[in-house]
Structure prediction request, 191 residues.
Amino acid sequence: MSDLTILALSGSLRKESLNTRLLKSAAEVAPDLTFDEFLDLAAIPPFNEDTEHPAPPAVADLRRRIRAADGVLIATPEYNGSLPGVLKNALDWLSRPIDDGPVLDRKPVAVIGASQGPLGSIRAQLSLRQVLHKMNANTVGQPEFVLPHAQQALAAGELPIGSPAVEILTAVVEGLVTLIEVSRVVASPGR
Ligand code: FNR
Prediction:
């Protein structure tokens, strides 16, 4: 699995984002994978059908990096019981059929999230999964990774080695790798 590249997408713009820290923990648990981090959704303009063509440079860059990656790992904060607007906005751009089609169509994707509340972003993840389902992404179903009270859990910067959360995070990343391998076999059955 060492030849795989994962695009890590954080749904938070915050410099000290817990979700961005979570992505760094995911990279730690999977040292064999190459992580390409896309942490600046602020560069993606508000979606507007009038300005779709040509695609704004940040959108073109994100599309290119998703195409180049074998899979995508999204860490979402929870805002008012749902996914943040900046993440939904980016997904709306990505859903549009430009050139060779919508880039998340059949793409292996895993969803994780951290929140400062007691539910650990589960409602945001469910909203995000609904959007990804509509976009026909190939998402990891189980396990689900939630990190409640994340400011405490990530107080040291990354998740403590050997913690139950690390075990579940590792299983999610392994699930993503399995999805990637299955999609490769489906795309090239003779390989
Ligand atoms: C929040 N937060 C929050 N937390 C939660 O568990 N459920 C929620 O519905 C909300 N709603 C919410 C709305 C808005 C507008 C903000 C700014 C925050 C708190 C949230 O979990 C916390 O700010 C996290 O730290 C955000 O993630 P990042 O930026 O640290 O990755």
Residues 12, 14, 17-19, 77-81, 115-117, 119 surround FNR (CB under 6 Å). The chain has one domain: 5-187. The longest helix spans residues 164-187. The domain at 5-187 is CATH 3.40.50.360 (Rossmann fold).
